[in-house]
Amino acid sequence: MNRTRAIQRCARIIAAAVVLPLLASCAAADTPVAKEGRTQTPVEKHGRLQVSGNRLVGSRGEPVSLAGVSFGWSQWDSARFYNAGAVKTLADDWRAGIVRAALGVHRTGFLSNPVENEARVVKVIDAAIANGIYVIIDWHDHHAHEQPALAVAFLERMARAYGDKPNVIYEIYNEPLRDVSWSVDVKPYAERVIAAIRAIDPDNLILVGSPSWAQDVDVAAKDPIRDANVAYSLHFYAGTHKQWLRDKALAALNSGAALFVSEWGVCNADGDGPIARESVDEWLAFMREHNLSHCAWSLGDKRETCSMIRTGAPSEGGWKDEHLTESGKLVREIIRGWSK
């Protein structure tokens, strides 16, 4: 190799050593880093949920307000939606941070068909965990205090199976009726069930309903359950429940109780009637103001206003606008616009 060619070769080597790394650095600056740019799931973002004062917070103490959907009763029209595809659509397309699996207890529910109904709930739980969202395991009963051993046995199974997962929330009494007492009937039941859960799962959030269909939260707040991670379920239907119920909720918050709207509807309390848009907006403003998490009722296709899916729509998600009822379109819009 002559001297000229040797000099040229050295120049090329030097250029490659200096220029190519610079070019690579520029290219890297323009290319998003996949790990850093990855969108977090709600559970990755917040971790295990905790009650702090009268607020719900994440594992780092940040305020949390989740929006999602409650499945309908596990044994009726909505049973066909208890599957992984439906949950994935809610997580990906609706951007739900939470779903609620409503284990129907009476009639054709858990009492008469325990294996089938529990299996449906388990499918929703597993899918929620797989998609990184929260899931409420709801003992969906209006008379739970009459058979506490039944609830204890089921919720102990759930705690053993899922108590190590930060996704899981237990709702141990859906809606006690108006003719029961918080201090005599509901609170003793709740204390028994909570003790059973805590023996297995000491950490995850527990929701407790109050009399009058989970509306007497002010009564419960004055005689609270002594557990560090308990919130009280607040249920409302916008066509029926107006400022008077928000006043009760505010009284509970002012007493130091944490609230969680585990069920609400856009219409009347019977699940039907017109969409009460003005009242819905008032409730949404209240929940935003007080940082409340909420699940809308219901993912089902029963012929009533609160059902979100039209009859004949696919069971396993992938719904388009024509598959959604007016309430379904509205709820989807609300959830997609809610910060997680």
What does this structure look like?
The chain is an alpha/beta fold. The protein folds into 2 domains: 1-38; 49-336, TIM Barrel. It has 12 helices and 10 strands. It has helices spanning 3-30, 34-37, 42-46, 84-92, 114-130, 148-162, 182-198, 211-214, 217-222, 243-254, 277-289, 326-336; strands at residues 50-52, 55-57, 67-71, 98-104, 134-140, 168-171, 206-208, 230-237, 259-265, 294-299. The strands form 2 sheets. The protein has an 8-stranded parallel barrel, surrounded by 5 helices. The termini are far apart.
SSE arrangement:
Layout: H1 3-30, H2 34-37, H3 42-46, E1 50-52, E2 55-57, E3 67-71, H4 84-92, E4 98-104, H5 114-130, E5 134-140, H6 148-162, E6 168-171, H7 182-198, E7 206-208, H8 211-214, H9 217-222, E8 230-237, H10 243-254, E9 259-265, H11 277-289, E10 294-299, H12 326-336
Parallel strand pairs: 3-4, 3-10, 4-5, 5-6, 6-7, 7-8, 8-9, 9-10
Antiparallel strand pairs: 1-2
Please sum up the structure shown:
With 340 residues, this protein is α/β, with parallel strands linked by helices.
Question: Main attributes?
Answer:
single chain; 340 residues; alpha/beta; TIM Barrel; 2 domains; 8-stranded parallel barrel; globular
| CA(first)-CA(last) distance | 67 Å
Low-pLDDT residue spans: 1-38
- Label the structural class: alpha/beta
Number of domains: 2
- What's the total count of β strands? 10
Which whole number gives the mean pLDDT? 91
CATH architecture of the largest domain: Alpha-Beta Barrel
Radius of gyration: 25 Å
Q: From N to C, what is the helix and strand string?
A: HHHEEEHEHEHEHEHHEHEHEH
Largest sheet: 8 strands, parallel, barrel
CATH superfamily of the largest domain: Glycosidases
From the 3D structure, determine the CATH topology of the largest domain: TIM Barrel
What global shape is seen? globular
Give the strand content.
Answer: 15-25%
